[in-house]
Amino acid sequence: MLNDYNSFNKDGRNLVDVFKELQAMQNQPKSTILETQEVEKPKKSKVSPHFNFSHKNKKTLNSFKEQLRYNPNATESFNRPSSRNVKPTKNSELKLSHIIIGCSMLIIGMAVLFPKGSPIKESYAKEETSSSVINYEINKHSLNMQSIISENAGMDRVKEQVTEERDVNFETNYTNNASLPKGEEVVKQEGAIGKDKVTVVKTYENGEFVEEIILSKETLTEPTPKIIDLGTSEFLAKNQVHIGDTMYLVNDGTLRETADDASEEVADIKSSLDVKLLELTSEDWCKVSFDGVEGYIKTSNLTSAAVTPSIVEKNRIQRILLKVNIDMELNKVSDLTLNDYKKIFTNLPNDTKGIFEANYQNFYNAEKKYKVNGIFLAAMAAHESAWGTSQIAEDKHNLFGYGSYDETPYESSYDFTDYSEGIETVAKTMAKYYLNPAGTKIYDDETALAWYFNGPTLQGVNTRYASDKDWYKKVYSYMQLLYNRLQ
Known about the structure:
Layout (H helix, E strand, L loop, with lengths): L1 H7 L6 H12 L3 H11 L14 H16 L5 H4 L10 H24 L5 H8 L18 H9 L3 E12 L3 E10 L3 E5 L4 E12 L2 E14 L4 E8 H6 L6 E4 L3 E4 L8 E5 L4 E7 L4 E6 L2 E6 L3 E2 L7 H12 L15 H8 L9 H4 L1 H11 L3 H12 L5 H6 L12 H4 L6 H16 L23 H8 L5 H14 L3
Parallel strand pairs: 2-6
Antiparallel strand pairs: 1-4, 3-6, 4-5, 7-10, 7-13, 8-9, 10-11, 11-12
Helix pairs in contact: 2-6, 11-13, 13-14, 13-17, 14-19, 18-19
């Protein structure tokens, strides 16, 4: 209803204002009223500038005019005295005001009866002039006051003041660390949550938390920051290693006293040998330990098992070969595998009869059982039998000339049923009489008698086993030949 009234009342006046104007008009002389109406009358419109009529209303007004034309007396009451020749009085002027008020009320009623979209709006739009019509816009989103009042009336808004302890999150701080692989994180200090005592005013609407206002805050416990070391070393990241890990030399290298090419040499290291990474002084130099000897070496000559998997096997062999020397202890196993023995003795050029290739596992078994170096046993056999071609070896399956004396070597040598028996007999003899001190536990709960013991080396065995003083050197040359077949 308000929207319809607003569409009618374009100049924004309300009914109270209209009634006040009408009241003022009835207090003016008639001539003044008429003059005022003529001045304000639009030139091209027969409709009041403040009111608009539909075609239906216009028809009613025209009918009223027709009555005036055929009944002239109808206007006499407005312009001349009554038949009693009484001068116009205030009461007669009031009749005109009553008519005006009535017409105004009629127009207001018509505006109410013809809402938006009715023919009266269309008529009004056609007869609208630039001087008398004011544009307007209907409020399409009018407020439902009853709904608003109902919603607010049912809202439960509560405020409360509380004092409580609250957690305070800790910060996380990062520190660059060149001793860690790039991108790796290591927690150096765990963070700890702090505590605050807080007084707040909390607001709830319909039981739901809306907001809070902090009145005061007191620190009870300061939070402890979390500290993380962030790795920056590309060298460590590339090789997937950390400080303390094992690395391997790509080529033969030199361990130096300081991280400088001109620094004094500490040790020479063969390729594939392993070192322990102690410190990364830069991306170009690092400190390592090689068998207890510390020094500096270039990082470019190092690799890791992750980057070069085959280096591990090469290192194992290199470590075995590193122990090979003329003074090596022969009462210890060689750390060679059965496959290593097979590799050493297969297609051995000097083994023209294939005797050593056929018995590589017997040499391996003798080493494991009697704790005597199997390559030493094979080197002895190769030297004494000329790679199995001697008459004693062929006739008696005796590769060692075991039992022979210089005067009667063939006659005094032992005769074995096969080569494996001769290999095991010599291994047992070396363990019991030549290589171990007396009382050493050797095999089958037996102990060494050490009748010919002069040390567990080639030279020690040479003392009582062979009359040739250079026997140990010749046997060692055979050992070198066999060991080198591992590379």
